[in-house]
Amino acid sequence: MRSRSSPELARCRPLLGTYVRVRARGASLRVRERAIDAAFERVLRVHVLMSAHDPQSELGRLNRTAHLHPVAVSLETFEVLQLALAVAEASGGLFDVAVGTELARRGWLPRPDGSNEHAAEPPRERPRAGRCLRLLPGRRVSFTRPMVLDLGGIAKGYAVDLAVRALRVAGMRSGVVDAGGDLRVFGPRPETVHVRDPRNPRRLLPLALLRDAAIATSAGYFDSASSGRPMSPLVDPHTGCRHRLRSSVTVAAPSCAVADALTKVVALGGASSLPVLAAFRATGAVQSARGQIQLLEASRAA
Asked: What global pTM score does this model have?
């Protein structure tokens, strides 16, 4: 919706498997339109580069050939992999993009060879990004063994960060980028962040007032197994088992990529994730199935 009488312009597009909403204030209507177009271009670029479902994407090419020879990648993909390794190290492997190997084995992601066959047994030793992923000079990437990377737990937040950067470069005074629960706010205007009530997912509850920061939420409200129990798309890298998420996990951080990745760490590690949150200057909140909220922040670490 837009109005020539309003300094704010808002648009929405389907990208990254969700709806991406961009709002911006500043300058003339034409400048705001160009700024928002630039923001969506950055999101689209991440979508094209890092899709695990598109064999022609840069990530698809990595998954097919990086165990055979180093593969040169874009700055965007290289930056995401750098951050992914940093979070993996800080979390003791609770966040691990190599979990895509297990997702492909179970048929939740395409296999790099294009086969529709699913492996019956997991490998004796699961690949770990910290051990098997190598970032080389010249933005080249290599694998020490065949594996499948999945950037779905971090790329959406990174795309939000790039969109915000584009808005700022275009001269916007303030704005909001929201990609299906991954949200970043900049400028003097704070934004009220809502989470869904686990007892009634159609109802939104106010959680925090966000200003010049990012927030991401992971939850299992609408994802259910045949038993009807809530399930999340998370797989525990340590066990290879799909993780049942009966609560919602929200993380606030300086960047949305960090917030996005840390929601998975908190979902798997709970209160033991406090040192990881502190290392990235982040805070967390876990909302139980009954609606009770537990705050995870450095001041409560005692």
From this structure: 0.89
